[in-house]
Amino acid sequence: MSRSKRMKVIAGLAEDEMTTAHATLKEVTNQRNYVQVQMNDLKQYLNEYVAKLTTSGQQFMPIQLQTTQAFIEKLKTAIASQQEQLDSLEDIVKMAHDQWTEKRVRFNALHKVCQKLERDERVALDRAEQKLMDDLAAQNFLK
User: What confidence tier does 23 reach under pLDDT thresholds 50, 70, 90?
Assistant: First the structure.
């Protein structure tokens, strides 16, 4: 097996790793986007809920105020939890992107090496063929 063919096998494996890393990056990015949407929805709901309370002008009994305040606090806790999850996913997305970039650079380097080896092998083969043709021509000339 020639060097270029062996290197092609290695480049193929590197391409598989790059593809897997890209799929992972897409997956964690989708997860992050989903969590971002959920958090935005919670924030929007909280803002609408508070706005509705303040514009209604309705009188509340103390127990209703406590219940309303507890609900608002639960929403704020949920938003904080979503933010923590989002921050964690941001770190994971960054790591996945770095890994994908590393795999892509490695694949591109190996691909270039394969191309160079193939080119070198073609040049060597062309030279050997030319030498053979020159030898045959010299033999025919001497006859």
Answer: very high
**What does the angle CA 111 – CA 112 – CA 118 come to, to the nearest 5 degrees?**
90
Give the Cα-Cα-Cα angle 54, 55, 59 (nearest 5 degrees). Answer: 65
Report the C-alpha dihedral over residues 32, 37, 42, 46, rounded to 10 degrees.
Answer: 130
* Among candidate residues 123, 121, 106, the one with its CA nearest the CA of residue 10: 106
Residue 47 zone, left/alpha/beta (φ > 0; ψ -120 to 50; rest): alpha
Which of 112, 143, 121 lies closest to 10 in space, CA to CA? 112
Mean pLDDT, range 18-33, rounded to an integer: 97
Quick one: CA dihedral 127, 129, 133, 136, positive or negative? Answer: positive
* Domains of the chain, start order: 3-110 (1.10.287.1700)
The 8-class DSSP code of residue 59 comes to: -
